[in-house]
Write a structure and sequence with these properties.
This protein is of the alpha/beta class. It is built from 13 helices and 15 strands. Strands 3, 4, 5, 6, 7, 14 and 15 form a seven-stranded mixed sheet that branches. A six-stranded parallel sheet has the order 10-9-8-11-12-13, with helices on both faces. Strands 1-2 form a two-stranded antiparallel ribbon. Strand 12, helix 11 and strand 13 form a beta-alpha-beta unit. Helix 6 packs across helix 7 and helix 6 crosses helix 12. The longest helix is centred in the last third of the chain and has 13 residues. It starts with a strand and ends with a strand.
Length: 349
């Protein structure tokens, strides 16, 4: 089969790789119908996550149709349309029982907890994927939801909602969201769903700021406007009730501490791959709460699917590019350089 494979920074290739096979009775094989390029994939592309091995298929956002299942699989069967959680758990270990499937010791020992970052758990920018512990990591897609509406339930929509939940966004809150990329866009939407009175979207990309305004946010380019002054004016001098960092930059997490009011809540959902020096005295004196971690879509998919079905949120709003899998490397170049007013690239085998 064809897949997009990792060979080092900015060296992804369309190659022929062996077809996946069932390795355990709890496995399923999924024929991929849609996948997407995630901001986390760009850490591989840019070299921010150096990985010694090469040749494995990348990508952790994918949906498809079940092609085969192991004898122990009960939740899905051949022909079912399914979406896969980007983080894979066994479903029965202590971490999984605590709803931390991303921390599963069983899948970690088997080669990885996240699809597309190792040969132990090859990714979904491919024609087919083996999904371990299918009953835990696959979800049926209702017939009234399209492939593209379901696709982002694999990672970034749950991540955005997790950010709003961890920041304890509630009715009347003023919320600052750093980043108007795909995850930031969903964090903004989910903050609105949870009742935020004002969502201040922060980015340097004017095209993305325009989209944020269209979704009802106040848009601030900190290169052109004093962000701190804007937040103070919006809050009567108190500071933001909640701040969500959805970019993955250490300096933005530090800025979040400054913008939050006393007793404010901060969610860091961007992947920060560099060391962070926090002015912890500020955290202490302001009684701030900071939460961060890897998403567990298994927890959020059952809560977000009904919102999509009811038309409360349309995940397809972020799609700007649809490309065949054969053009995925071009899609990476476009996404990495913010070219062509890109926001989200969807791939079809």
């Amino acid at each position: 089969m064809k897949a997009i494979t990792y060979h080092g920074p900015e060296d992804f290739r369309l190659e022929s790789v062996p077809d996946p096979v069932l390795k355990a009775d709890t496995d399923a094989l999924v024929r991929v119908s849609r996948s997407a390029i995630c901001g986390s994939d760009l850490h591989l592309w840019h070299g921010g996550m150096p990985i010694p091995e090469t040749g494995f298929a990348v990508g952790h956002e994918f949906i498809g149709v079940v092609e085969d299942v192991g004898r122990a699989v009960q939740g899905v069967r051949r022909g079912d349309r399914v979406l896969a959680s980007c983080t894979a758990g066994c479903g029965t270990c202590a971490s999984c029982r605590a709803e931390l499937w991303s921390g599963c010791a069983v899948t970690a020992a088997g080669g990885g907890n996240v699809f597309g970052f190792s040969s132990g758990l090859p990714g979904g920018q491919a024609e087919a994927v083996r999904v371990p512990f299918a009953d835990t990591n696959l979800f049926k897609i209702p017939s009234n939801i399209s492939d593209e509406q379901a696709l982002f339930l694999t990672d970034i929509l749950p991540t955005g909602y997790m950010g709003a939940e961890w920041a304890e966004v509630g009715p009347g809150d003023v919320v600052v969201v750093f980043g108007c990329g795909p995850v930031g866009a969903f964090a903004q939407r989910c903050a609105q769903l949870r009742g935020a009175a004002r969502v201040i979207a922060v980015d340097l990309d004017e095209g993305r700021l325009t989209r944020a305004r269209e979704r009802g946010c106040e848009a601030v380019n900190p290169a052109r406007e004093d962000l701190s002054a804007h937040v103070l004016a919006a809050t009567g001098g108190r500071g933001a009730d909640a701040v969500i960092e959805a970019v993955g930059r250490p300096e933005l997490l530090v800025k979040a501490l400054e913008l939050a009011r006393a007793g404010g809540r901060i969610a860091a959902i961007g992947v920060i791959a560099q060391p962070v020096e926090l002015p912890f005295l500020l955290v202490f004196l302001k009684n701030l709460t900071i939460r961060s971690g890897l998403v567990n879509p298994q927890r959020f998919v059952p809560r977000l699917l009904p919102l999509i079905e009811a038309g409360r949120i349309d995940p397809t709003e972020i799609i700007t590019h649809r490309l065949p899998l054969a053009d995925a490397v071009r899609g990476y170049r476009i996404f990495a350089s913010h070219a062509e007013n890109v926001l989200k690239v969807v791939l079809q085998p």
